[in-house]
Each structure stands twice: as structure tokens, then as C-alpha cells.
Amino acid sequence: MTILTKNIPTADIIVEAHERIKPFVHQTPVMTSQSINAISGARLYFKCENFQKVGAFKFRGATNAVFSLNEDERQKGVATHSSGNHGQGLALAAKMQKIPAYIVMPENAPRVKRLAVEGSGAEVIPCKNTLASREETLQKVVEQTGAITIHPFDDYRIIAGQATAAKELIEEQGQFDVIMTPVGGGGLLSGTALTCHYWSPLTKVIAGEPSGADDAIRSMKAGTIIPCPQPSTIADGLLTTICERTFGIIKDHVSDIISVTDDEIVAAMRLIWERMKIIVEPSAAVPVAALLKNKEEFKGKKIGIILTGGNVDLDKLPFR
Amino acid sequence: MTILTKNIPTADIIVEAHERIKPFVHQTPVMTSQSINAISGARLYFKCENFQKVGAFKFRGATNAVFSLNEDERQKGVATHSSGNHGQGLALAAKMQKIPAYIVMPENAPRVKRLAVEGSGAEVIPCKNTLASREETLQKVVEQTGAITIHPFDDYRIIAGQATAAKELIEEQGQFDVIMTPVGGGGLLSGTALTCHYWSPLTKVIAGEPSGADDAIRSMKAGTIIPCPQPSTIADGLLTTICERTFGIIKDHVSDIISVTDDEIVAAMRLIWERMKIIVEPSAAVPVAALLKNKEEFKGKKIGIILTGGNVDLDKLPFR
After folding, report:
1. Which of A2, B65, B206, B295 sits 20 to 30 Å CA-CA off B35?
2. Which residues, in sequence order, are bridge partners of residue B309?
3. CB A31 within 8 A of CB A51
4. Signal peptide position in this chain (chains A, B) (predicted)?
């Protein structure tokens, strides 16, 4: 373990993370939409991480983690369990550093996702589709290979990497009244909150969260982490539960978390597809759904929204 | 009629058109995709007219035509028959100039399209879904209102407007080995061919055309316009037949037209959606399908592709 995993990232640590990953990640474009501005009554700036490598912001954190390893750790490689964007991000970051990567994936994961991870040269280790099986299998892989486990969000190197999306947004577009993200495990939200705390302290950080996976809202109310008993939402990137590291930052630096239903998420996703002509995944539409649900609160404000990713299965779209 | 409609646009006329429309159209971004480069073996630069106002390049030509009217013509307004992008483009351009617009549309046109046109303040006049009814109805509208008919492509003002997409592409990204567009009525293709002829004479202009609406290929072979008897293709923007004005330019300045099937179009469209995370309509995927069908011909070359539009009905997507 390096020092980076022990403390909440400072401004210097986030600057370092940004310098470290800058040559390897896309500085994604910021888009605006006159028609969604008109519909919402706010001035919106969309940071398009759906255009990031592997199609999601997760590549930022994964790259920062992998590129932070020392020589000894590099030899052993990295491992995680993921059927989603973190697995793909970690696999590609490991490929760029020419180190081994082991990705534990449920055997029922979509073939296209497995192929994408394998395409980056990572080894895919199948497991049963339960959290217990995922964790056990990962444990075995780590014992056998000595690989370093890179958690998708419970890791300050990951949080510092995700913080760079909002940092780029502010550097390019100046100060915002509000910056919005979705919240799943809280890596992006906590990183965004740190960035605003350090470089734009008057900016409110507000998250959207699916009502079917509302552990962050429950936890904010209770002041302690309360998992959602049976999380279920179309926003498949947000099924995870926040952890001590992310919640510690979120409770101090996030102004509000707004709950949205799956119908509201799909409607927001459709609006983005139709008006902006870009593909975002359901999770990415969550803050837009939160904004449209609370128009009065955001009226006339300058709002940054991080569009987190664009990985959808075109064979299973929620439009009818 | 102004002088602009009487002669093939000169370089000066296209420069004038560009200056005229520049403050009102988006200078659309140029995107690249490492993965589609790897798949194709070529270096591709995508001019994203799917991000243009009304979601298609058609707004360029419509704006040039509307903004070229003299005071007397402005008073009378403009008219066309269109269920697609030209109708929307003309309606918005007319709105910007605060002049009346009359758009004849088949009564079975999608509600969302009718609403979009009406949303720009244009008057929608319903007709039966036949070319005869469209033309008759338009004729009546013109007789009643004195409005100036703006044809979607058989008009040198339109051609000069469409020529500005390739002009921007070359100005931003330098010379190309090849620039590709689809061909329907030929407005974009002939405009692109003129731009290359004037400012990048070593660039080959190559089009893709749906095999189910292959009037341009038939006409190139025959040396005279041969309509396709019963045009049918998923690329609904390309059902139209080239005309004397566009064919006159195409036969002199276009190197090749490549035929592609609907399956090839859908596969190319899917590739763009999945790899680039942007929404393009079937017509826009046609040149990409043509490129992928002839990889050897394009290998290692620097290729500009005009992605013509992004207006799809999300309820009727061709993916399974």
C-alpha cells in the first residue's frame, strides 16, 4: 500500500494525479444544448466522459491507480472484480503499463464486455453471479498471483483520479453554481466534491441517485452508512453501496442528493439522446433527471454535469 | 430568382455563402476514433453534422437560401415539401429571419417531426403521402401565399450552403486523400465536390449510396439521369433522385460511388454508435459502410467523412 491510500487526497495529490494521467486519458469535450437549457431553465455544461477511453470516467481512476504502482507491485499486476466500466478501465490501464491484469467477472456477464476486457490483454476469471463468489474468486486470484487489488471506489488513488473530471471542467469553463454527478459507490461524487472544495468552494455539489439503490440518501439522513437492502435500478452502474472512504468525504462536502425513479432516468436519457445526439448510459442520465425534477431549485444557474459513461447494450434499450 | 440559382457556384459564391451562414450555424466538431481507425486501417476524421442545428447538415443549405432572399421575397416567405431534415432546417432558418415558412408534410409523418417544424413557428400543411399530392399541395400553397419554393437540393444556393461542411473540415484539418459523403438528391455530394475542386484538388470525392436507391450509380454509368424505379432503403434521407444541377457537378468531380446494402448500413451505424458514442441516422452511416466494404482501397489514407445527421426515431431502432 502506498501513502495515497491512507489519507483523503489533498489538492496537491489531485494535481499530481491529474499530471500523472493527463497524457493517457482524453480531455473530454464539454457540450451545451440550447434546447435542454430552454427545457430546464438553467445553463448546463455537460462534461462528456462517455467519450472517455473505454467509454466512462472510470478510466481516470483506474489509470491513476495503475500508474501509481511501484516496480514491485507492477511485476505482480492488478486485480479486481467487475462486470462493468471499472474492469474495462483497469484492463486498459494495465495494458498501457504492460503489466498483468486479472478481472473476475460473473459467468453471465455480457459476452461483449468479456471480449472488451480480453481485448485489452487482461485475463478474465469467471465466477458465479453473487457478491460472495466474486469476492472469494478475487481472493483466490490474489493469493495465487500476488496481484494488487484495485477496488472500483474504496481507494483514495481512484477517488483522486475521478476528481480530475471536475477539475478539467472548472479549468475549462470557470466557476459553477452547481456541479452534479450520479452516486453509486461514491468515487466520482467524492472526487468531484474534493475538487470543488479545493478550487471552487462556492460551488454546490449535488448528486442524483436512483430510488431503487438509495443507500447514499439513507446514509446522509442517518449520518452513517445504511446499505439499500435489495438494490434494483436500470442505472446498472449505481447498484453499489458507498463506503467509509467515499462517505467520509460526501457527508462533509456534498450539499444534497436527489432521488429519481427509473422512469425519470429513462426520460432524461432519452432527452439527452434526442437533443444532444450522444449516447449516454442510464447512470449518466441520473443527475439530469434530478435536475429536471427540481427545476425551480436550479433555475438560471450555471450547472456542470458529468456525463459518466456511454456503455449501453444496443440490443436492450429501454425505449418503446 | 437571384443570379445564385443560375450558375454552378464559384469559389467566391461558396466563400460568400460561408460568411453569410457562419454566425447562425454550428461549426460542428471533428471527431476521431482510434478503434474505427484500427478496424478500417485508415485515418478517419468525422465531421459531426449530427450536432448541427436541427440535427443535420441540411440547415446549412436552408440557411444560405433563406438568408439570400431579397426584401420582396422575404415578405412572401418560403415553402417546401419535406417530411425530413430539409423541412426542419428551412423552418428554423425562416424563424431566424422572422419570415413566414410553409412546410407541406404527408399526413402520416411522425408527430414528433410535425411538432418540431411547428415549434419553429412554421405552418405545416398536410397532404397525402404521394409525390403527386406533395407537389400539388405545395403548388397551391405557393399560389395562395406567393412564397418562394426552396427545393431541398435542386438549387445552387442550397448546394453552396452544403459545400461549407467540407470547407470547414479542410480548413480545420488540412488536405485529405479522400472525402466521403452519402448521396441522395446530391446536394451535399455536389457541394463537397465543388469545395474539393476549388480548395483541395488532389482530394478524391467518393460517395456511398444505398443499393435500394441507387439512381446516382445508375446515372454515373449511363452518363444521364436514371431514376431508381422503386427506391427503398433504411437510409430514409437518401430516397430522393439526383437532378440536373447536382448530377452536372457530380459527373465531373466525383471519383466513385459505392453501393451498400441496408445490412451494411445498419452494421456501420451500430459501429459508430458503439465506438464513438454518438447518434447518427442510417443515411449518415452510408459512407462508413462503403469504406468498410472496400478497406483495401482506403488503407493508410487520410479520409474525411461527413456524418450527415442524427435524427432517428428511438422507438424504431434497427438493432436486435
Report:
1. B206
2. B56
3. no
4. none
**Does residue B4 surpass a pLDDT of 50?**
no
Question: How many inter-chain contacts (A to B, CB under 8 Å) are there?
Answer: 40
Instruction: Return d(Cα A180, Cα A164) in angstroms, integer.
Output: 14
pLDDT tens per residue, range B202-230:
999 999 999 999 999 999 999 999 999 89
**Average pLDDT of the residues of chain B:** 95
Written as nine digits, the cell of A205 is 455539489
pLDDT, residue B109, reads 83
The 10s digit of each residue's pLDDT in B26-35 is: 999 999 999 9
pLDDT of residue B19: 98
Chain A residues contacting B via beta carbons under 8 Å: 29, 50-51, 55, 270, 273-274, 276-280, 310, 314-315, 317, 319-320
ipTM over 0.90? The verdict is: yes
User: In terms of CA atoms, which chain A residue is nearest residue B55?
Assistant: A277
Min distance A317 CA to chain B CA atoms (Å): 9
The reply to whether A45 and A63 lie within a common domain is no
Contact assessment for residue B213 and residue B221, using Cβ atoms and an 8 Å cutoff = no
Q: Where does a domain end: A149, A172, A199?
A: A149
Out of B50, B55, B274, whose CB is closest to A314? B274
Domain endpoint, select from B149, B173, B189: B149
If you measure CA to CA, which chain A residue comes closest to B310? Answer: A277
Is A133 found in the same domain as A14?
no
Q: What is the CATH number of the domain that holds B279?
A: 3.40.50.1100
| DSSP H helical ranges for chain A | 11-21, 34-40, 58-67, 71-76, 85-96, 111-119, 131-145, 156-173, 187-199, 215-222, 244-253, 262-276, 282-293, 295-298
From residue A99, alpha-carbon distances to A64, A77, A108 in Å are 14, 5, 27
Which residues of A are less than 8 Å from B277 in CB distance? 50-51, 55, 278-280, 310
Domain encompassing residue A69: 59-149
Judge whether A278 and A228 are in contact, CB under 8 Å: no
Q: Do A126 and A236 share a domain, yes or no?
A: no
Mark whether B284 and B166 lie in a shared domain.
Answer: yes
Quote the pLDDT of residue A2.
43
Q: For testing the chain A interface, which of B34, B277, B317, B320 should be mutated: the one with the most A CBs within 10 Å?
A: B277
Both B232 and B308 in one domain: the answer is yes
Do residues A269 and A255 both lie within one domain? Answer: yes
| Distance separating alpha carbons of residues A95 and A93, to the nearest angstrom | 5
Average pLDDT of span B15-27: 98
Task: Check whether residue B214 and residue B89 sit in a common domain.
Answer: no
